[in-house]
Every structure is written in structure tokens, then in C-alpha cells.
Please model this.
Amino acid sequence: MARYRIGPAVMQVVITAIAQSVLAPAAISMAVTWAILRFVPGDVARHYAAAAGCGIGFFGGFAILETAAIKPTATWHWLPWCGAIALSIGPVGLAEGVRTSERWALHLGLALAAALLLVPGWAALLPVRGWYIAAFAAGIGGLSILLDGLAKRVSGSMLSASLCLTAFCGAMVLAIAVSLRFGQLAGALAATLGGCFLVIRIKKPQSDGPLRGAVPVYAILMGGLILAGFLVPREPPLGLVLIPFAPLALWLCEFGPPSRLSGRRSVLVRLAALSLPLGLASVWIARSLNLASGNSGG
Model:
């Protein structure tokens, strides 16, 4: 039986890809989050630590992976800038005295601003561009609002795990179904989420407050990556649109018998709930790719 060996050149490519899309964004995220928790006082640190860690970490990862795209020439090049807007404005809604309706309006406004930047103005898309903008703004704004409410009910560890696992699944699907470029960017997002959440668990083990600030950053960046991946292929797999919304499955565990579970059982049930939409999306995308390949082959 033939034995295959991975040559030094291939290993170098793999190591470089991991360093660029995972290690560097995670390191930037951890450094930013640690600095804010260490040197910024009180509520400002609590509101901005995770948001800044995720947003700046992703910006750094994007700059490493797509250096030429920092000055936008295509709509998806605005992704890190949308993250910067979300990290700057999103945590304002967590300030004391902000009403729920005002917080919701802030989430919807951020999603609308991102939609205007990220939805292309291609001639072929112009007749339906308004619908794309409305759908993205409503979907991502609603996602951000529901995740913000969820963050007040579930533990920080469960919230962070759900967002990281979703971003990681998105990275795998985008790399396989769309392009390695978008897969690496989603991997950078997963790494930044994991990095800042790890620092928060170490620095503030008894507080879940800082994690909530990352919600609008996650919603806009994950939604923007899926939008970009959805528009690239001629026949995009519709299952892509389910992926950013997967963490909302945790709401199912906040009512009825699952809400009364505790300890390991509670964790397992919530992870099972999260796996349902991710699994459904993966199967749907796989079937779409098989049908597309069968049609092209026929």
C-alpha cells in the first residue's frame, strides 16, 4: 500500500494559513480584550471589552488575509469597517438608562447601515437590491436583538460556545461550498470570538456582562460573510442563510422542561439544540452542491 507524505512546502502553506486566519486574529483579540479589562475603568470596560476584542481582532485578521482590500473596492471589503462601526456604536445600547425600544432601534440601525455597505450595486442585482437590503437589515437586526435578549438568560460560557461553534461551522461550509477566502475570514471571526471570550473568563470569571457587547459585532460580521458567500456562486446554496441564526435555537431551552435542567444535562441539551440548525444547514448545502454538480455533469 502506497504511503503518502506531506511535503515541507505543503506544511508551510498549512502553517501559514493557520497562523494568518486563526492564531494572529486570536492573539490580537486577546490582547485588546485584556488591555481594556486591565486599564479601562468600570462600565466602559464591561460594555466594550468583548466588542472591541472581536471587532479589532477581525479587522487585524482581515488586514493580514486581504491586505489590498482594506481600502474597499468591492462591497465585501467593507466587512471589517462594518465590524468597527458595530464595536463603536453597539455597546452604547448597554449603557444604563437606555430603553429597550432604543436598544432595538440601535441594533436595527446598525444592521441597515451594514446592509447599505455590503449589498452590491451590480446591474443584475439592481432590480432586487432594495429587497436584499431590507431582508439583511431585518434579519440581522432581528438576530442581534434576539441574541441580546438571550445573553441575559444563558451563561456566558454557553453564549460564547454557541457563537464560536457557529462561526467555525460557517468557516467550514464557506470554505467547502463557496471559497477558501471567505472560509478563512469566517475562521478569523471564530478565532477572535474564542480569544476574547477566553480572556474574559480568566479576567472576569464571575461576570457574563462583557460578553453581551460582542452580540452586534458577531451578528453583522457573520451575517455579512454569509451574504458575501451567498452572492458569489451563480446558484448559491440556500442553506447558507440558516447558519448565522443557529444560536437562536438556544431559546428553545428557555421554556418548558429544558429550562428546568441544570449542570451537565443542561449543557448537553443546549448543545444538541444548537446542532440542529447547523446540521440542517450543512445537509441542505451538501444536497444543493450535489444537485448542482449533477446538473453540470448531465
About this structure: The chain has one domain: 10-244. DSSP finds ten helices and no strands in the chain.
